[in-house]
Write a structure and sequence with these properties.
The complex is a heterodimer of chains A (180) and B (503).
Chain A: H1 2-16, E1 22-25, H2 26-51, E2 55-56, E3 59-60, H3 64-86, E4 94-97, H4 98-121, H5 123-138, H6 143-164, H7 173-178
Antiparallel strand pairs in A: 1-4, 2-3
Chain B: H1 2-14, H2 17-35, H3 41-48, H4 57-82, H5 91-102, H6 106-139, H7 144-161, H8 166-181, E1 183-184, E2 191-192, H9 198-201, H10 206-225, H11 238-247, H12 252-267, H13 271-286, H14 299-314, H15 316-322, H16 328-339, H17 346-351, H18 353-384, H19 389-408, H20 411-429, H21 435-458, H22 469-482, H23 484-502
Antiparallel strand pairs in B: 1-2
The chains are: A mainly alpha (180), B mainly alpha (503).
Chain lengths: 180, 503
């Protein structure tokens, strides 16, 4: 599972970092984040305007408080956007370089797959796969150690949560087979 | 002296085999959380919160607060032995702690760190014991306008006094407040900002957000930086402990000063991080041996550790007495209280005496037990750091997912956690602070409710926030703090002008 992830990560890095080593600059990311936040604020403002952002006979309507908050968020994001665009000095400071991005993807992609697998296989099987795969392919730890560690961890989690503390986790076909 | 009687009763509540063993479990888990890179106080408590859902509130809060104490103790271990601060508030501890370890005095440095942590939190707990009941009974007179003014004050002080760029603090805070509004409106029962999604109907649970923002994002950052752990081994012998303790009275000024700084910054939402740096800098400024700081001076360990712990502990004072957390972790403990149906704030002292005094008693006991435990088990926890990160990272991810799922039994929350993890990573890298977001997520609903109740009471007249002396002075103070940079800048210019006119 993690094998395909690292391939995915290495496919992605050369494409996004053509000549520079830095994949993105802090300034570029600030611009993108400000735009996203401003868009989010606009969406929220619109929705709250529809729910009623004014005053009813008994005080502010449901949308009043969040409406003005979305205006505040929008204003602060636009300010941040303008500042990031105008601020030319120090624009070159890198957000991540290729090597860093590759390492971040090494954990982000498996985590994403783990979430996906949890839906079908249940949390315990997915966590076994995540830990064993991560230890083997990212950490380059011996097979038997990886499998043994993750098996022990998954079983310990199952005993702690599902049995000892009665906190029920999502389960899949394997648990059904074992009768839980 | 009513407080003492109630405190003794609190100890009675605690001294059962079950509570004591939960306390020890909590401390061990907490030290683990503090030692491991990629896990810290806030998300450690958030992840472990589901474990306590089936317990009674007193046992649960005892275990959670012990996780908190453990995390505070644990941060020092990595700072001193590995030169890696396990927590942001232990950064200042590395300045002198790590040089001491390099000189073969790791045991002394660790003893100094643990002892001063103990002293710092003891001072803060004493403060809580004697001050909290008074503040709570004073706050019983608060109505919705007063509460809204206090929330407003908290938010304003973050914007005005924070060291981050102002618009970034505002972004973080307004985003948090907006996110709490999603779902069912508690006053009118109307749905808002759900966009027809069933999953958003429940609203965004702040624990899910915290686990993502702190837990997942911290893993991403740790992977990016690729930590290489090269540390010093240490075991603490009773002889070393006694030697450090014998020297302790010589540093009473430093200890007292740092405790005071810590308590002050803990109660106001400045936090343990600022306190530890301030404690260190002041100790250096007032020392006769300035030049020896940073080269392994034991005072340089005492000062930040005392301040960090005093502030970490006193952050619980406004949480208990007013329902306003003084730190991120206190915010999560507050979230925990609400999960068990306890409403933090002044009424807690009246309605749930047993619970409050059990918690305060557990602060005393947890610190004593914690001190003994860390002093005796340092080698074990130092060994944990030698486990490869490739094994620890996925286990932390799984623990985060378990924590996020267990809160509402929703798969959607696991996805939300992942999203918040990415958001937290990006925000940290571009300097948008996460503490205001956390605080807003916790306080958002209460702030909105108190605002709307005040408005309903006054018929929509904003002057209600200046309607009497109490609420008026809180609101005015809030505005002063909000514009503090401008005001202090103005005063500076005025003084310059006066000085210039004289000469």
């Amino acid at each position: 599972m993690a094998g395909s992830d690292s391939a995915g990560a290495s496919r992605q890095s050369p494409a996004s970092a053509e000549e520079e080593r830095a994949v993105a600059s802090v300034r570029g990311v600030e611009v993108v984040v400000s735009l996203l936040l401003a868009a989010f604020a606009a969406l929220m403002a619109h929705d709250n305007w529809k729910s009623g952002a004014g005053w009813a006979s008994d005080g502010p309507k449901a949308g009043y408080f969040p409406f003005y908050l979305s205006l505040l968020l929008g204003a602060a994001s636009v300010y941040g956007l303008v500042k990031a665009i105008l601020h030319r000095a120090g624009a070159g400071s890198p957000f991540v370089n290729r090597d860093q991005l590759r390492r971040v993807m090494q954990v982000l992609v498996p985590t994403f797959l783990f979430c996906l697998f949890t839906q079908w296989l249940g949390l315990y099987v997915a966590s076994f796969l995540l830990i064993a795969g991560f230890m083997r392919w990212v950490g380059e730890i011996a097979w038997w150690k990886s499998v043994l560690t993750s098996l022990l961890f998954a079983v310990a989690m199952f005993v702690t949560f599902d049995i000892a503390f009665d906190v029920i986790m999502p389960k899949g076909p394997l648990e059904a087979l074992l009768g839980f | 002296m009513e407080a003492l009687g109630l405190l003794l009763h609190g100890f009675e509540v605690l001294l059962t085999f079950k509570t004591l063993s939960l306390m020890i479990v909590g401390l061990v888990l907490g030290i683990f959380v503090g030692v491991l890179p990629g896990l810290g106080g806030p998300n450690g408590v958030a992840i472990l919160l589901p474990l306590t859902f089936t317990m009674d509130p007193t046992s649960a809060i005892v275990m959670l607060s012990c996780i908190y104490w453990g995390a505070l103790f644990g941060g020092a271990i990595t700072s001193i032995l590995f030169n890696i601060p396990g927590e942001a508030w232990s950064v200042a501890t590395t300045f002198d702690g790590y040089p001491m370890a390099q000189q073969g005095k790791a045991a002394e440095a660790l003893t100094a760190a643990f002892t001063s942590s103990f002293i710092g939190s003891l001072v803060a707990v004493l403060l809580i014991t004697f001050l909290a009941p008074g503040i709570a009974s004073f706050a019983l007179r608060f109505g919705p306008p007063e509460f809204f003014a206090v929330y407003f004050l908290t938010f304003c002080s973050f914007v005005g006094l924070g060291r981050e760029e102002k618009h970034k603090t505002i972004i973080s805070m307004s985003l948090g407040l907006l996110l709490t509004g999603i779902g069912m409106d508690t006053v009118s029962g109307q749905l808002r900002m759900t966009f027809g999604s069933d999953n958003l109907l429940r609203g965004i649970n702040f624990l899910v957000a915290v686990i993502g923002l702190f837990g997942i994002s911290e893993i991403l950052l740790t992977m990016e930086e690729r930590l290489a752990l090269r540390g010093h081994a240490a075991a603490i012998s009773p002889r070393v402990v006694l030697r450090v303790w014998k020297d302790l009275p010589r540093y009473w000024v430093t200890l007292l000063r740092s405790s005071a700084i810590g308590c002050w910054l803990g109660i106001t939402p400045g936090g343990a991080i600022a306190a530890s740096f301030m404690g260190y800098n002041l100790a250096k400024r007032f020392s006769k041996h300035k030049e020896s700081f940073g080269k392994g001076r034991i005072e340089g360990v005492f000062a930040p550790e005392t301040a960090a712990h005093a502030s970490g502990t006193s952050a619980l004072l406004p949480m208990l007495a007013l329902g306003i957390p003084g730190s991120g972790t206190a915010a999560i403990l507050l979230g925990g209280l609400m999960v068990w149906g306890l409403n933090p704030g002044p009424l807690l002292f009246v309605e749930h005496k047993d619970f409050v005094w059990g918690l305060i008693a557990s602060m005393y006991l947890g610190n004593i037990v914690g001190l003994v435990m860390v002093l005796s088990t340092v080698p074990v926890f130092a060994a944990v750091l030698r486990v490869p990160f490739a094994a620890i990272a996925p286990m932390i991810v799984v623990s985060c997912a378990v924590g996020a799922f267990a809160i509402q039994n929703a798969m959607f929350d696991i996805w939300l956690m992942l999203l918040f993890g990415v958001v937290g990573y990006v925000f940290k890298k571009i300097g948008i602070p996460l503490a205001p977001l956390t605080l807003a997520l916790v306080l958002g609903n209460r702030a909105e409710d108190s605002f709307r109740l005040s408005m309903i009471g006054s018929g929509g007249d904003l002057r209600v926030f200046w309607s009497n002396g109490l609420v008026g002075s809180i609101s005015t103070l809030a505005l002063v703090l909000l514009f503090w940079p401008a005001i202090s800048g103005g005063f500076g210019r005025l003084r310059e002008m006066l000085v210039g006119a004289k000469s």
